[in-house]
């Protein structure tokens, strides 16, 4: 009698369809059942006897940024099968920026848990993570980091640009620009209707250096994508080819047991920080990087990020810091062009999902060519990195400013605080003709931090009060504990930590207080004495928000501050084992 194909093997095999067999009772029966059920879908034993590659399907009618998911999955499957593996796609949560209330960030950790647990629960030897819209890639990398198996990121890719009355437009820096023009009475209702058809010209992610593009570049810098995986637009043949290669490489990673911990090392995160600074990336990028690193037991040192920013110039000429769009970056050679330029600042021995180091990948990409999207270090867009880390008595745990997108005239500024207690207060009063505000003031918005709103919404891009907008004011200093979209611009201080909802100093700012912002000194200071702040805290103590039930309750109980990546405390690695960058 031949041996049973369902019994445990000697030595034990925990791969393919045998992976994670339930151990209560009878393992042989467990495999017997598993195979019986999957055969219900028409599989043969020959198909099941291969390395299994899971593919996350994050397509959703609510998510046009992932509108090419069906084509990508088909191409990944082709790649997996060409390399001798068995592709198995499965759904996870999908999050789109505009369709997730109260804010997509509220759901990021939920998506990371969904991803982690489904990768862990189902039999797979490697996983292809298909993500693109802002929160999806960080959620997937967080989940995969915790699940620990060989993992490779596939980006959905950017949307095409559109054209409106002779002008090239793309989401969503131009969405903001046109809306601001409408608020200032510079364009009429008909024009808003026209441009609305052009801002998102195809499926795919926002076409500027917003959070989606930032995370795509970061994923490649971390070594988590195929080389060249960050930049191809969603609807291109290059994007589909990358998908096929990604599937094939996933099989190779399964065979080589190239687990995610071999890729997500301190060196990889250091490279990602350099790239974040050099692309003029979204401020959200640092929150997400911190959260991903936290899953690996790595602590991102914000002070070091600031130091790195002083010798990492912005090289990428993309909106909102510059003028081009993602498709131009792709035509200019994509990340290879940027990484080649940044080479002296990178840790070239960092391992990537290809099994080669980042340095080897840069070499393989060949020589550069003349283009005007990625500048040279000698001729940068902006001499320092895209963002600076501020401290001071208003933000003892730090705050962030995207200096490359700020007005240089406002970066050294002292002014009077005009305070809004929360988003509702802002909505009621910001456009009032009675609002006591001048262009020299500083708008302060409270209660939009991780616990405040909750979910740290992108409300830190406080609109210019209508009466100032009509008077032609284009920028004003704004300060909050929230985030802002990577597609936004202005002199905007974000991520003030600790947040006001848990009693951070921001909670006690009052109308008329003086605030000093000095980006040169990396300072954001409330010019009010400690005694007075203590008196205010005692007079009206902050009551932390709570919820009765459900995910919101879990969120409010567990969410950490911006300097810990806004992850849940119980999802972070049990122990922090190293810092990024490493000392010495
Ligand atoms: Fe999905 Fe901008 S809305 S990337
Ligand atoms: Mg965004």
From TrEMBL:
Residues 1-20 are annotated as: Disordered. InterPro entries: Dihydro-acid_dehy_C (IPR042096), DiOHA_6PGluconate_deHydtase_CS (IPR020558), ILV_EDD_C (IPR056740), ILV_EDD_N (IPR000581), IlvD/EDD_N (IPR037237), Sugar_Degrad_Dehydratases (IPR052352). Coiled coil: none annotated. Pfam families: ILV_EDD_C, ILVD_EDD_N. Residues 1-11 have a biased composition (Pro residues). Keywords: Iron, Iron-sulfur, Lyase, Metal-binding. Residues 372-565 form the Dihydroxy-acid/6-phosphogluconate dehydratase C-terminal domain. GO terms for molecular function: lyase activity. The keyword Iron applies. Its EC number is 4.2.1.-. Belongs to the IlvD/Edd family. This is IlvD/Edd family dehydratase.
